[in-house]
């Protein structure tokens, strides 16, 4: 089994690993990634610095590898160039990552949207037990981060959308965070309205929780924030879940609303794809109890045309490793294209 390299770039760090598709990751190096205006000059900011770090990490492993897979937090255009990456510095715009990294490493490189790559990792390494994995053909990955990303695997293959074939990139299929669940809902960053992301995305949840705290409707959240060293710094859904558990009813309702949106999304997905496995990723295991049961309740209430006996709904067992593991799978597809990429 050939050794592969995997890169997972996020808004605040980049991780590089090596491993095999049969055995998973063997070693991982990481480095913080800064953003322009954050005043963190010791960290990697420019794309050139990030790619140089990735190349030196790959070199530093001291192992022979055949290809690299790159999980990128943004949208890539039809040529594999960066089209949109709101969490990174603007210099990434228009960059052809696979070629840039290929030039530095001499390796074939495949690049994909982070949620799509995480779906690959989840399908190959995730929470299904072996018997389920053998029979699972169709999986939907719902990545709950700042927004809501997604990836769909049908008959064992990642659904990529049109315009992909033999090239080191993925298409646009799988943007399930922008499925509309409320036509009259809140405006979404995508330009639409009432998308799943506007109710279940981390930024939407934190924004709503902040408002409730400011209104005095979330006293436990206020207390938890005051107990921290830096009460004014940002917080995430984990803290909202803790405050909800402690008794903030307004936050319980907020999370119930997110769970309902995800339940309706799951019911819609059942009617279109009849997946065996719907998995919630993005390091949100703190929310498992608040999301999975309500999702099942809604799916049972609303899905009558499609059998549910093969369906598993779960939170990811891979925590923050789905992207790196998916990168190994993605790298496996890059080896096929060696001639294309090196020429
Ligand atoms: Zn949207």
Concise description?
The chain is α/β, with parallel strands linked by helices and about 350 residues long. It contains twelve helices and twelve strands.
How does this structure look, described?
With 343 residues, the chain is an alpha/beta fold. It folds into two domains: 4-119 and 320-342, Nucleotidyltransferase, domain 5, CATH 3.30.420.40; 176-315, Nucleotidyltransferase, domain 5 (2-Layer Sandwich), CATH 3.30.420.40. Helices cover 39% and strands 18% of the residues. It has twelve helices and twelve strands. The protein has helices spanning 47-61, 97-105, 114-125, 130-135, 197-200, 202-214, 219-226, 237-246, 249-273, 288-302, 322-334, 338-342, and strands at residues 4-9, 13-20, 24-32, 67-72, 75-76, 82-84, 109-113, 139-144, 148-154, 157-158, 277-281, 312-315. Strands 3-2-1-4-7 form a five-stranded mixed sheet, with helices on both faces. The protein has a five-stranded mixed sheet with strand order 10-9-8-11-12, with helices on both faces. The longest helix is centred in the last third of the chain and has 25 residues, at 249-273. The two termini are 25 Å apart. Bound molecules: zinc ion. Residues 178, 188, 190, 192, 195, 197 line the site of zinc ion.
């Amino acid at each position: 089994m050939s050794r592969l390299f995997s890169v997972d770039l996020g808004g605040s760090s980049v991780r590089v690993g090596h491993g095999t598709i049969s055995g998973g990751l063997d070693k991982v190096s990481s480095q913080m990634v800064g953003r322009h205006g954050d005043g963190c000059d010791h960290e990697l900011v420019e794309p050139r610095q990030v790619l140089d770090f990735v190349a030196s990490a790959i070199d530093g492993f001291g192992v022979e590898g055949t290809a690299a897979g790159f999980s990128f937090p943004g949208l890539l255009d039809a040529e594999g160039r960066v089209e949109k990456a709101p969490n990174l510095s603007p210099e990434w715009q228009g960059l052809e990552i696979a070629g840039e990294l290929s030039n530095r490493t001499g390796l074939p490189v495949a690049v994909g949207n982070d949620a799509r790559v995480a779906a690959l990792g989840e399908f190959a390494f995730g929470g299904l037990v072996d018997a389920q994995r053998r029979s699972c053909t169709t999986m939907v990955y719902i990545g709950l981060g700042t927004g809501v990303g997604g990836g769909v695997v049908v008959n064992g293959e990642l659904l990529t959308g049109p315009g992909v074939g033999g090239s080191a990139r993925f298409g646009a299929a799988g943007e399930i965070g922008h499925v509309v669940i409320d036509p009259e809902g809140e405006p979404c960053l995508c330009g639409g309205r009432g998308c799943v992301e506007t109710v279940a995305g981390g930024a939407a949840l934190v924004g709503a929780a902040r408002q409730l705290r400011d209104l005095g409707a979330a006293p436990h959240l206020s207390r938890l924030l005051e107990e921290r060293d830096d009460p004014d710094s940002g917080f995430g859904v984990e803290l909202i879940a803790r405050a909800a558990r402690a008794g903030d009813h307004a936050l319980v309702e907020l999370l119930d609303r997110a769970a309902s949106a995800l339940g309706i999304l799951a019911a819609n997905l059942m009617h279109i794809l009849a997946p065996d496995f719907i998995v919630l990723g993005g390091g949100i295991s703190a929310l498992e109890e608040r999301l999975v049961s309500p999702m099942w309740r809604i799916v049972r209430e609303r899905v009558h045309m499609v059998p549910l006996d093969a369906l598993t709904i779960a939170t990811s067992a891979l925590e923050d490793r789905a992207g790196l593991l998916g990168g190994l799978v993605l790298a496996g597809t890059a080896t096929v294209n060696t001639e294309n990429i090196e020429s």
